[in-house]
């Protein structure tokens, strides 16, 4: 029925294979339903996920490869959600990484079932979300922006930003300040003075 | 040279030449003149031996080594080899058989490109051995170098023994990776050292200065707060409590102790525990600044803290921290009703007040009227050490005069040799130097007033107006309290709770008063450039007396010598004696700043107030006794000026163990000099505690090193050479790797060597070293896209965990991935964890109930959704990364160097020759620029090309910006941000 499929569009479709996976308990922010799907979790029209516990992988090293092969090329985003549930992880993780790479899959690691569940939820919830939160500038107020810029200079902290701002009044005044004026600021020691001054006064590039 | 230096050198040289164990690690106590030791080694270097390379030196070490060579008239001074020299030039230097300072990054790149004629290298000296690790670039260098040259020596030095014992078996591990067997320990308590230094010890006078009541109160409150934080931290049961003492927490290394324990479990710690660690750091600074800063600056720092940390900090809400703020404020001002009555403020301690009044009766009380009916009464407590400093200086001068009298008949030059009358005041930082200098010239009250005026201006955002007047047409947003108009405050909440509001108003009023005065002042100075000119003729200072502005210039320009500041102060009667005594100031005369005694710069009082001020000044100076020449020296500058200035009186204003040792060495080198040292300690202060603890800590570090030395074992190969790090240091991967490691260390051509192209900047990290250990060939170049190119298809952007969070926040990761995806078929984001930290982002309990945009999970999810072709690689540590790289490369072609270098470089000019890529960037400036509003990936290159530096950018007019940035809108955004007025502090 169309009503049902409409509802299912907003839900994660879970393969019957995942029945009994305690991870399902942690998918709470979106709806999920069992369905006949070839992947473990169908997250959208073009994205899907396979769940892999490292412990399981150690017992069945070929499992992942066969599951990926089943997927064929139907999805743009093919996530392998790797639950890191053993201590000695380097070697198995290397194998998983290699398999994922060679077969065009994106590997996401999670260290708890909660985290696994959260990845699935997030990918579903953010299905149509633009990437702007990745493009920097989450805070747009003046002080955050000023800190954002000034803290590129090593060891300059938020307190120093306030000190510099209140002492010099504006960013252009800070950038134009003499070494001595910088040194007079409380909390700004010799090395910070030098770093700040060099950042502002050394040329952007030295031609060789 | 002191004798024990000769011992150290002969110990080192003993093994040579051509011995099998050519090299060693020397650890000596701090302050034992390591720079002189190195310069002695350099004078012993002869060009017949070959080229000598000095690695891992910092700028101050380089300058002090060169300085001590110059003092010995040694002509062949070592040059610096940096990336700014061309490759051919570098090559000619490598073959020149002299000594050089070189940056490790350049040396490793040249070694990997086979551009270093290793057989012509006589040896390598590595400084700051305490900074080395098993995988650092220096150990990479030594490993490659040892593979090619087995006879040259490699010597490492450290004068930070504490740094050599942090971490398990650190010294032995470092020695192993440098292929060294010999450890030379030279603590201060070593027989030769102590004999040398204690033969003719200087006269030491220990002056204990009492702190003011408020200072004691603040110290007590800070310690209480620290104690509370420590107790909380212990409660968390996450740290070993033995090391958590208030004494330990006075040191920077305390953070290290705590972090080392907490790092592996950092992700499971609650926010509170993390904040406690931060708070302890802040509190430590507060203790330190209490004895370093004047009362006003201290208050300003506290205000700043409240703004920047207020919300997060735990300590700020503690009971004791209330006292910190309260006392700090009372040292500066108090609130009084306009009619003279005191405003009742809780916690007022009458006892303290009385005591204070007794201590400095010179406190000026000025009342400033405000509309609100409450006025600020200045207290402006002076630092108790100031008075004592003046007394000591007077005493020294008196003594000198007495001595000079009977010697009048004797040969005057004789006397000058012995005592040039120079007094050195050593304090912690440049700031204290400047302030003490002001104090000596202007008097305590003037210094305090200047600070107070600055405070008021900063506090109320009234600064910089004179500077930018006329230049700034636009009215900045958000601030309407300009021009001294007290804002129309709503009268509705003048209740008891609004004391702070009243206070703020009163401060504003005081500030506006000052601002208006200073405007007038500017005019006054314009009319009469030397307002004090004829008032008091004093000595020859008058002749040179310059107006305030020109002095400002002299002081700003010498950025290098900024820490050696010289002030002269004397009466006319003294000047003859001074001239005749032929003081040895020829080498410092350039930077000398001479002043008139009563010069009074930047006074902001007018009319009646000014007269009042003059009177007070006159009164103050009436009883002033002559003072000697005083040099101020900042310990933080890491320079060594004792040998240049040759002072005979040293006042240690801020006690410091390293400096004390330097003085001891200086005395030992000049046994005939009559050297007198004054120590100024605040009694019962953490200053004393810290000084004593630093000596104890160093001693125990040496004891531990001596124990370790007796147990050290080093494997040897058949030729008797030390065998460096073996595969056993690699925690993983014992299996398939043997076949790959056989080529490690050598660059012999095997049938097929796996190659990796590595961006130059990555040589700051250890991964290239580990990849090389694994048998991969490293090709260093400058890459525009990605950090590592594994094959024509695979390009890797590597992020450590902190990098990952940072570059997500800045938006940089997004653009990096975007370009990688554009140019490579298999773009890879490598997320590399650190072995000593946990392998996970967060604990399950930190994940929270909702999907939040700030979570790392959300960001990673969005990233992979927007770039489905991006491959993520999760690596436990460096070694695991190397394994993964090798495994990913196994069925791929080798990368194409030419192509990799061309990727992403704008090619409109069509020239992508090798030298175009040889530019080096001021990376922090470029990064800074890219974070400014209006600056984007598409316009930042034009800005870099169009103006020289950020300082220049700050002054560019908007039209020019628009031209460079290709649009008015972006230019306007940038210009607005640059000129935006910093909001005033609440």
TrEMBL record, chain B:
<dbReference type="GO" id="GO:0003684">
    <property type="term" value="F:damaged DNA binding"/>
</dbReference>
<dbReference type="GO" id="GO:0006979">
    <property type="term" value="P:response to oxidative stress"/>
</dbReference>
<feature type="compositionally biased region" description="Polar residues">
    <location>
        <begin position="573"/>
        <end position="591"/>
    </location>
</feature>
<dbReference type="GO" id="GO:0000724">
    <property type="term" value="P:double-strand break repair via homologous recombination"/>
</dbReference>
<dbReference type="InterPro" id="IPR047520">
    <property type="entry name" value="XPF_nuclease"/>
</dbReference>
<keyword id="KW-0540">Nuclease</keyword>
<dbReference type="InterPro" id="IPR010994">
    <property type="entry name" value="RuvA_2-like"/>
</dbReference>
<keyword id="KW-0378">Hydrolase</keyword>
<comment type="similarity">
    <text>Belongs to the XPF family.</text>
</comment>
<keyword id="KW-0238">DNA-binding</keyword>
<dbReference type="GO" id="GO:0000014">
    <property type="term" value="F:single-stranded DNA endodeoxyribonuclease activity"/>
</dbReference>
<dbReference type="GO" id="GO:1901255">
    <property type="term" value="P:nucleotide-excision repair involved in interstrand cross-link repair"/>
</dbReference>
<dbReference type="Pfam" id="PF02732">
    <property type="entry name" value="ERCC4"/>
</dbReference>
<protein>
    <recommendedName>
        <fullName>ERCC4 domain-containing protein</fullName>
    </recommendedName>
</protein>
<keyword id="KW-0234">DNA repair</keyword>
<feature type="domain" description="ERCC4">
    <location>
        <begin position="755"/>
        <end position="835"/>
    </location>
</feature>
<dbReference type="GO" id="GO:0000712">
    <property type="term" value="P:resolution of meiotic recombination intermediates"/>
</dbReference>
<feature type="region of interest" description="Disordered">
    <location>
        <begin position="523"/>
        <end position="608"/>
    </location>
</feature>
<feature type="compositionally biased region" description="Basic and acidic residues">
    <location>
        <begin position="357"/>
        <end position="368"/>
    </location>
</feature>
<dbReference type="GO" id="GO:0003697">
    <property type="term" value="F:single-stranded DNA binding"/>
</dbReference>
<keyword id="KW-0539">Nucleus</keyword>
<keyword id="KW-0227">DNA damage</keyword>
<keyword id="KW-0255">Endonuclease</keyword>
<dbReference type="GO" id="GO:0009314">
    <property type="term" value="P:response to radiation"/>
</dbReference>
<dbReference type="GO" id="GO:0000720">
    <property type="term" value="P:pyrimidine dimer repair by nucleotide-excision repair"/>
</dbReference>
<feature type="region of interest" description="Disordered">
    <location>
        <begin position="346"/>
        <end position="371"/>
    </location>
</feature>
<dbReference type="InterPro" id="IPR006166">
    <property type="entry name" value="ERCC4_domain"/>
</dbReference>
<feature type="compositionally biased region" description="Polar residues">
    <location>
        <begin position="550"/>
        <end position="565"/>
    </location>
</feature>
<dbReference type="GO" id="GO:0000110">
    <property type="term" value="C:nucleotide-excision repair factor 1 complex"/>
</dbReference>
<feature type="region of interest" description="Disordered">
    <location>
        <begin position="465"/>
        <end position="484"/>
    </location>
</feature>
<dbReference type="InterPro" id="IPR011335">
    <property type="entry name" value="Restrct_endonuc-II-like"/>
</dbReference>
